[in-house]
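FIELD: query
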Amino acid sequence: MNTETKSAIVIKRFQCRHIHTDGRRCASPSLRGEDFCYFHHTTRGRVAHPSTASSSKGGVIANSKKESFTLPLPEDRSAIQLSIGEVLQRIASNSIDPRRAGLLLYGLQIASLNLGKHIAPDSQPIEEIVNDADFGPLAPQSEVTENNGRESTVVRILREWNEQKAREKELAAESSPGTLPSVQAVGTNENAVILSEATRAASSAVEGPRESSRRVCRSNRSTTTAISARFTRPNRGFQAPESNIKTKPALAPENTPPSISMGTVNTNLLFQNPADLATPLLAVFAVDSSTGPDATPALLTTSSAITAVAAPWLASQEFKATLGETLLLHTPSGLKAERLLIIGLGKAKSLTIHEARKGGGAAVRFCRPRGLHELAIAFPESESLPVGPVTRALIEGAFIADFDIDTYRSDRKDQSIHALTLVTPVQIKNQLAAIELGLNEGRIFGTSQNFARALVNEPGNVLTPTELGRRATAMAESVGLHCEVHSMDKILALKMGAFAAVTQGSSEPPALIVLRYEPPTAPAGDSPTLGLVGKGITFDTGGISIKPADNMDKMKYDMAGAAAMLGAMRAIALLKPAVRVISVICSCENMPDGRAFKPGDVLTAMSGKTIEVLNTDAEGRLVLADGLHYAQQLGATVLVDAATLTGAIGVALGQLNAGLFTNSDETSAKFFSAAWNSGEKFWSMPCTDDYRDQIKSSIADIQNTGNSRYGGSITAAMFLKEFVGETPWLHLDIASTAWIDEHKAWQSKGPSGVAVRSITEWVRGYASTN
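FIELD: result
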């Protein structure tokens, strides 16, 4: 081996001389020949084990026979980057002997391995090659396999890392100019990140499967694990950076099936008599035209053939045309359809496009369990239903209904709708443009809502914050949005102390997702920039203030606010309104462990406000506080956030209406108009300064829960209001409406995708007024 090669560092490893009381020899490596390992130096007064003792010298010692060099141990969890960076800079400037630097880096690696658990050495001393500061191409294979013809662990890990980076560059180079970059992981010290990841991967490669799984899980918490002789917990809002290493969840299904095949339904438009259409099933709508207690069903079609075949059944009073009620007729006489399905839409006097939306959904839900993959819907002919909006509502309802939550069932059958035909009467062909617009918008709204529902439906071991970032990036690339995904380094750089505190109890890195929509048509000069902020807690245990076991499995849905924003951004990108939009998603897990934030802690948010933590299960408002402030820094001048924030909103409003809180009546009026068009229900809740006293803290600026159990959703909104200042702002508490507990005639149980349509309509409202 050529030890004079300046592009390589030679690391010699020796076995520790310590003999345990049972006669076993220590399995850890020593830092030099004829000496003890890092841990057993404590018994000789040299260097303390980071988790058990302190050292008078307090440093990592590198010895190379006659030469020695001591680097002081970092005093907090993030300073290890500076330590490694110092060594790497010395290597780059040729100001340190490579052997000495190699031993020094090796000592730092050992110290960083999960509080002193070392890589077990080989039975014989070996030499390993590590590249210099920029971790460029490795030495030739002949130089790295000289040790009995095999590649060392460190070299293999670094080689695989370099190959991965090369593949990423190739993929980026192959991308067309219109595509967007993939997930961006911004770190403060790239060399330190690479060294840390190589160290973790090397430890996993040498240890057994169970130990490596546990170690990878815990070591993902920080970009580099702390190596401090005396461990001191830093400011709770500012822990060491998360690693951007991507690891597949240990318990995730091997082949994750797609939750929803968006856009696979082939929608067709025909202008003809529906009785003349050959189809497996033809759906027509009926209303109760009576004004008294006895129902009088009436079909919403002018086709005489359909009216004639249905007349005996309607006259029998067996079918009353209540909303979602169905009547199936096989081989109807005079019709080319194999089946005729009559769907009730309720009272004629209260008929709106929202009943039509449910009717379209009821038709699809009827077909799915019966294995019918094709159907036709007869356009509802009624003067109270505008042609364009009702077309959109029918298609929306059909797409939303074509969704079930049984994604991971091994015996799952394909029940999806492959083809949907909308049969419209010839006399409205002059409104073709409005109908085609409705078809297109219905597809966009329906698939975007299903995109959000699919995210919420994923289990927590599949949809980690990192995976949410990946899916957001893939979605952004497919529709032309700009997307950035950051992890703990960026969160710390921005001083998001509230967000950082929530994530520090989890082994999963957080994700700070930022999406930007720039309209193809430039908006007016005074047009606002809208900021969409979502709570993305991919699993919420409650943290130290842990939740009861009952229904905790449902807490995978605690990122429904983030999903709503991602679904809305998808729809916005496809609809292309002339208004700028920014979305900020703060995603992490809320987990209890020794590093988790605690009741009584005081955090400093990005805005500079201090927060006393009374309950760690009130974590959503903490991540939103930093997200709302950051959105304003990015240029948002009008804000809306969505979150499954409080159970109290369900106590107040039940499961039919979501709560809306605001500091601007004008902004809320715009939103209520958009919500009516979308068919989603929101109820205005108080958010006045009278309630502020309930979140005052005696030791900080504010506290994260109210002083009593009353008005819990209001005190949560008041907390968020502290971080928006004078910026017009809406808060949507969707905790009681984001999940449907029972099947409905027009929609499956599970995630509802609430707020996607309303937020998108609200955004379009700003474009139409400019």
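FIELD: remark
The mean pLDDT is 78.
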